[in-house]
Amino acid sequence: MAMNNILIIEDIAAVMQWLEQSVNLAYSQPQITKVMDLCSALEAVKSQSFDLALIDIGLPDGSGLDVVDYLTQNNTATMIVMTTIFDDDQHVFSALRKGARGYILKDKDKDQLAQMLINIENGQLPISPAIANKLLHFFNPQQPKCKLTNREKEVLTLIAKGIKVPQVADLLEIKKSTCYGYVKEIYLKLGINSRSEATMEASKMGLIDRNL
Q1: Cα–Cα distance measured from residue 60 to residue 37, given in angstroms and rounded to the nearest whole number
Q2: How far is 166 from 142, CA to CA, in rounded Å?
Q3: Which residues of the chain have pLDDT under 50?
Q4: How many angstroms separate the CA atoms of 77 and 64, rounded?
Q5: Does residue 168 share a domain with residue 114?
Q6: Which pLDDT belongs to residue 42?
Q7: Same domain, yes or no, for 132 and 57?
Q8: CA 72, 76, 79 angle in degrees (round to 5)?
Q9: Per-residue pLDDT, 144
Q10: Separation of alpha carbons 5 and 88, rounded Å
Q11: Looking at the domain assignment, is residue 39 inside a domain?
Q12: CA dist 78 to 49, 51, 100, 123, 148, Å?
């Protein structure tokens, strides 16, 4: 897959320069379109086609994931690669589920990034090692050292669905203090500390379907 027409979406000037330099190192005389906000990015993808789109997530007027949505619905030939500082499960899996085929963290020098871009033409998807490890862990999860009790699984299932702890207590007909105790114990056993991580763990255990 030849990368000739390339879109870079990035709102920080220094990072934009890093991305542009990397693209120029990777490809011979690429046609580069640079935009710094969501509005301009959507105008660009609606007016022309791109072989490669390097998309930042956090933009001053919205999320780069909106561009991913547009491209996957209207220009499936574009290679979509996220270039971002976000390495949490929510951003990573949202981007990949929406259609991104690469996810590069902004921790590379321009030569390293250029090599990742070159590898696209060789059929290799550009994914930072930390993100690759996250994906491997998700699809090949280790069993928790301490198994959850049936009650703890019930609590985990409900909080993973976005239900607040007091409402979980009401649904299970237990005291709120008891429910908070279950949540604390679940987090300790699973080595997590946020609701998003609880959702991920519940998905790994088959308690919920993240796609619903």
Answers
A1: 6
A2: 30
A3: 212
A4: 18
A5: no
A6: 97
A7: yes
A8: 95
A9: 52
A10: 30
A11: yes
A12: 7, 5, 10, 14, 44
